[in-house]
């Protein structure tokens, strides 16, 4: 059984379960990503807050990303996009686990 989730519902669910996982702007970017994915595939996506938290990491900078990865290999977001999905938003970007 599925139900429509509004942007506000999406934020509320994350804030109830994982309040410190993503910034407000990152949650907006994730909401838009999954809405577009549903439209592109024509299939509804089950909202699983914990799975999304496991699948995505928010970064403020390439330097922070490289620090977390323990390397200086990635110089641009495009370098990261060669290996995984990246969602850019005002103030940072999200990287899908790879």
Describe this structure in words.
Helices cover 50% and strands 13% of the residues. It is globular and about 45 Å long. It starts with 6 loop residues before the first helix and ends with a strand. A 3-stranded antiparallel sheet has the order 1-3-2, sandwiched between helices. It has one domain (7-96). By secondary structure, it is of the alpha+beta class.
How would you concisely characterize the structure shown here?
By secondary structure, this protein is an alpha+beta fold.
What brief labels describe this structure?
globular; 50% helix; alpha+beta; 3-stranded antiparallel beta sheet; 98 residues; 5 helices
Strand content: 5-15%
Question: What's the number of domains?
Answer: 1
The average pLDDT is 95
Question: What sequence of helices (H) and strands (E) makes up the elements?
Answer: HHHEHHEE
Question: Quick one: how many beta strands?
Answer: 3
Task: Output the radius of gyration.
Answer: 14 Å
Count of helical segments? 5
Taking pLDDT < 50 over at least 5 consecutive residues as the criterion, the unreliable ranges are: none
Strand numbers in spatial order across the main sheet: 1-3-2
What is the CA-CA span between the terminal residues? 30 Å
Output the structural class.
alpha+beta
How is the topology of this model organized?
Blueprint (H helix, E strand, L loop, with lengths): L6 H11 L6 H18 L7 H7 E4 L2 H8 L7 H5 L4 E4 L2 E5 L2
Antiparallel strand pairs: 1-3, 2-3
Helix pairs in contact: 1-2
């Amino acid at each position: 059984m599925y139900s429509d989730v509004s942007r506000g519902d999406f934020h509320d669910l994350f804030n109830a379960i994982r309040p410190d996982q993503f910034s407000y702007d990152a949650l907006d970017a994730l909401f838009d990503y999954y809405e577009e994915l549903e439209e592109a595939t024509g299939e509804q996506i089950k909202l699983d807050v914990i799975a999304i938290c496991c699948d995505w990491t928010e970064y403020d900078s390439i330097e922070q990303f490289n620090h977390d990865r323990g390397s200086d290999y990635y110089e641009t977001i495009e370098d990261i996009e060669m290996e995984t999905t990246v969602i850019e938003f005002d103030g940072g970007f999200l990287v899908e686990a790879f």
